[in-house]
Amino acid sequence: MGVSRLDVLYRKLLLTKLFIQGWGKPEDLKRIFEFRKIIGNREKCKHLVPRDYPVFIDKVEDHSDCKIHNGHFISPLEHFVPGILPTESVKARFQFVIPKKWRKHRPVCIHLAGTGDHFFWRRRTLMARPMIKETGMASLLLENPYYGYRKPKDQVRSSLKNVSDLFVMGGALILESAALLHWLEREGYWPLGMTGISMGGHMASLAVTNWPKPIPLIPCLSWTTASSVFTTGVLSKAVNWRELEKQYATHTVYEEEIIHLLEYCGTDSFRMGQDFVRDSPGSFDKLSDLALSSSLLGLSSEQDERVGLRREAAGGGVGAGGRGPDSSLLLEQREGDDLDRMLSAVSSSRPHMDMLHAKNISRGAGQRQSLQRESLYFMKGVMDECTHIANFSVPVDPSLIIIVQAKEDAYVPRTGVRSLQEIWPSCEVRYLDGGHISAYLFKQAIFRQAIYDAFDRFLQKYPML
Fold first, then answer.
1. How far apart are CA 114 and CA 196, in angstroms?
2. Is 17 helix (H, G, I), strand (E, B) or coil?
3. Which SS3 state, helix, strand or coil, does residue 75 take?
4. 191: cis peptide before it, omega within 30°?
5. pLDDT in tens, 170-182
6. pLDDT tens digits, 370-398
7. 430: which strand partners?
8. Which residues, in sequence order, are bridge partners of residue 248?
9. CB 430 within 8 A of CB 455
């Protein structure tokens, strides 16, 4: 299945850069990775947020179709990892949109925000109010750290300054979701569920892994890990790779200390990619001689002509028994399979395919490519550590999970990534035609129907819970 042209075009129209200040402070990354070990385990995490955690309602707005409660509470993350959140993000804000008259039960779905979804109006207009009209279901809209009222003053729009900011956001939302679920239970609302679109769907998935009870989960346009989003998806073009490479080369702490804190080692992990390259030292040399097709690299014919193949590797050349620059090479099927595994494992991306391919490169350029490759490895490693679903507990009842995915999603690639169905047995995946942007703009009704179906499934299975 190809990728959506609309996704690619839309990304090209946006000029913003991500992670302009780099990886984040090494000390912050260490603290986050250590805390991830706690929140990745439901048994360790379930008592972090007390059931009576204080939540406050500041104002109630009366509208023709609903009531909107505006509230706040202090992010529990501030208690466990003090100072890791920006000052502006410490106070968590939310809107609780409830019907004027309940139909049956008092169901509430928590909606987490996707990339660029500041404040509440988008989720309130496209999801919450239609849900009240269609089924009488209430919605609680939590504002993400780094967004809206919680955005740092020196942050430009939605462009997180550091890679570590994404991990801080995730850790905060896991604990904040638990605080809100406890509060809703205290207030007598039931059943409760969680959803989100794009990044919001992934954050909702992480939050549900820590809830100690069966709960409906409906992640839309998200998948198993954020590593593919920033290394092979169209958002990888917005990453400030130059600064990341510079910091990785300058500060040895990333390679000598932080890299050893990474624990995720699934079949699609960064460690598997490292092991493959280590155990097959000729693998990258094979790349230097392989006439990769433009379709494999996702290049146009014009780009394919510009992108050469590395001919000098490990001293190999014509004089060393290597192949001449104009000779062709046909690899056996086994070698081709090894190449596919390697490309998948290291998440080779279009904006970084040049790190593997350069014609007659100099020694200096070779070092540059090595740095690019190592930075890409490291990005995949840290992203998998903090965002890979397999690095967290399996939800109590995966059969209550309905995932909605776009077949041609260029923002959230699924190639080379473990399937959610493998990690969460008995979950359901529904596929939509088209890409990420078209689904976000035109498929909101399908997202809402998935929410209703998941809640119905919960009521059938746990009518007395």
1. 7
2. coil
3. coil
4. yes
5. 999 999 999 999 9
6. 888 899 989 999 999 999 999 999 999 99
7. 404
8. none
9. no
